[in-house]
Design brief:
This protein has helices at 2-20, 26-44, 52-79, 81-87, 92-95, 100-121, 123-146, 152-156, 159-175, 182-209, 211-216, 222-226, 228-252, 257-278, 282-316. With 322 residues, it is mainly α.
């Protein structure tokens, strides 16, 4: 009985801890699941009926990416301890909520789930996870502090989210190779660009907020490389390119107006905050940057919520697909 209880604790404790970690709001936790599910749905389209195998792929993809998200976030907290001690002292390790050793153990649990899920989906998914894990490890631990390229850290950080698009499409193409085409490759590239610009647009203002700690540790962001004003201008441009790539996704893929109209309204709301950031003085930018960063991240999350809703409605109201 005690052994069984001990085993339950090993697997349950990480999830209990994460329920209160970083105070992630409920809508954000739900949005991640919808994001991870929407990509294989978008890649699959509506040319073929949804089978048990397709629902299996959606489920395993969602679980794998969710576990991978938590693993990456925890590894980031472990490797960024020196930065977080100065800039985010409320995070788990600097605040003393958990030791680095125990946090490392939780990261291993989620990493194991990620690798197992990728194996279930096929060799190419497993290879992609290996590549992403190696990149995240070396980027967080070494490269973002050592590479001398201006703004290097923020230029490559969105790659971690781009994996979501690559993984979802790879999972579908591994099981349904007949769906691979030049057109679909272009659509995947569009989704990659959409994720890159939208994520980076929110990440740059957060870099303005974190500039003091980043400068102390020689982390090369747009702010530490070019200054707050230039960083805010780049973020504004990236928001514009986010709208362009989102519009092209609407035009080229199976996404409909359930996605596009709310997306444009949400984008207008978000870029209005980015525009206000441009007009702030440098001191106020550091405070306002965190607000714009949160609005921008919500744009990324809600865009995928809308994609999922659009695709789900299409699926429900097209009987031949079920």
């Amino acid at each position: 009985m005690n052994k069984q209880h001990h085993q339950e604790c090993i697997f349950i404790r990480p999830f209990k801890f994460l329920a209160g970690w970083r105070s992630l709001p409920l809508y954000e936790m739900i949005s991640y699941a919808l994001m991870f599910a929407s990509v294989p749905m978008l890649a699959y389209g509506f040319l073929l009926p949804y089978t048990t195998q397709m629902f299996y792929i959606i489920l395993i993809t969602t679980i794998t990416l969710y576990a991978g998200f938590f693993a990456a976030l925890i590894w980031n907290d472990i490797t960024d301890l020196d930065i977080d001690t100065k800039v985010h002292p409320d995070r788990p390790i600097p605040s003393g909520k958990i030791s680095t050793k125990r946090f490392f153990g939780i990261a291993l649990v989620f990493s194991g789930i990620t690798f197992l899920g990728s194996i279930l989906l096929g060799f190419w998914c497993f290879l992609l996870v290996i590549g992403a894990a190696l990149f995240v490890t070396f980027h967080n631990k070494y490269l973002k502090k050592l590479v001398k390229i201006p703004a290097y850290s923020e230029i490559v950080t969105p790659i971690q989210w781009i994996v979501v698009a690559l993984f979802g499409y790879t999972a579908i193409w591994t099981k349904f190779p007949q769906l691979i085409s030049t057109n679909e490759l272009q659509n995947m590239l569009l989704l990659v660009l959409f994720i890159y610009f939208t994520d980076n647009a929110h990440d740059i203002p957060e870099g303005i907020h974190d500039a003091e700690g980043d400068r102390l540790l020689n982390v090369r962001t747009y702010t530490t490389s070019f200054g707050e004003k230039t960083a805010a201008a780049v973020s504004f441009l990236w928001f514009i390119l986010s709208a362009v790539s989102g519009t092209l996704l609407f035009v080229r893929t199976s996404l409909g107006i359930v996605f596009y109209i709310p997306f444009i309204l949400l984008w207008i709301y978000t870029i209005s905050y980015s525009f206000r950031l441009l007009r702030k003085n440098v001191v106020d930018m550091r405070y306002y940057g965190s607000i714009v960063g949160r609005k921008g991240f919500n744009l990324l999350l809600f865009s995928f919520d809308l994609m999922f809703l659009d695709l789900l409605i299409h699926l429900i109201f097209t009987p031949t697909l079920l």
